Target: EAL domain-containing protein
Amino acid sequence: SAKSGGRGAFRFFEPELDEIMHTRRNLERDMRAALAGHQFELYYQPFVNTATGKTSGFEALLRWHHPQRGLVMPGEFIPLAEETGLIVPLGEWVLRTACAEAAKWPLDLSIAINLSPAQFRSKELVPVVVGALASSGVAPHRLELEVTETAIMHDSEAVFAALGQLRQLGVRSALDDFGTGYSSLSFLQRFPFDKIKIDRSFVSELTSAKAEAHHLARAVVRFAVSLSKTTTAEGVETKEQLDILREEGCAETQGYYFSRPVPASSIAKMLPRDAGAAVCAA
Ligand code: C2E
Ligand code: MG
Ligand code: MG
Ligand code: MG
Model:
């Protein structure tokens, strides 16, 4: 075993660690080039009004077309982008690109954008958001900024201050991945979120056979309503999950059941005919 191997164990692990560091450095180098080389693209996933079935908006989700590795998902590069600070210029690109795209949609559709804690620390966030809205012409109330519970726990004051300023301009915010962090309910109450996004891990538990999962979903929805916040369930994959969430009063739903995230060029097909034609022509 590794333990009884003594020094041999270290020799065994060294090359591996070296390889990880090497891969990391390459990824960091490639990411800097990618921003300049237009290798990033935003995909969009609709979120749907649970009662009416109508699309309420789209969430922008980042993709990286790596020249050698192909399509790279955010889980692979966002953490490194955060560590290296690259998330600040990358996040600015996301805000500007997503707002420019949303400017082509019907006016009742929202655009949701994910933000990292490092973007709040940069102090540039509020002017960058204001700039993205101004240059695209998108009304502030159509923009929804998503922040994870875990992110807030590390940087609550910076997040609180920026979201407060943006809220005064009419920009909305959502607590993403709710239920995966460890924040207390009173802590969440302090934050001026408009929306709570119930994490996929809860939604995947929702089957007719599991009564406790229903009760949990119901409790989260009621908690949100009691704080005057709306709810979106993430990761809805089946009709059964949708039906349960509707019954429990969840306002919005999002997931593969409706659509996977798609490139901007595919959005027109998902909109009502007239609006779709307008987007195609734009
Ligand atoms: P998120 O914001 O919670 O986004 C939801 C993730 O779940 C997305 O993964 C989406 O593709 C996936 N998903 C949606 N519906 C379903 C479903 O029905 N089943 C399953 N299994 N998965 C579903 P993705 O695109 O890989 O993004 C992962 C995370 O990366 C996001 O989680 C978000 O935290 C982060 N991220 C993505 N784009 C950006 C960005 O532009 N900036 C920042 N800071 N973070 C981003
Ligand atoms: Mg999100
Ligand atoms: Mg989420
Ligand atoms: Mg997530």
Q: What stands out?
A: Residues 7-36 form the longest helix (30 residues).
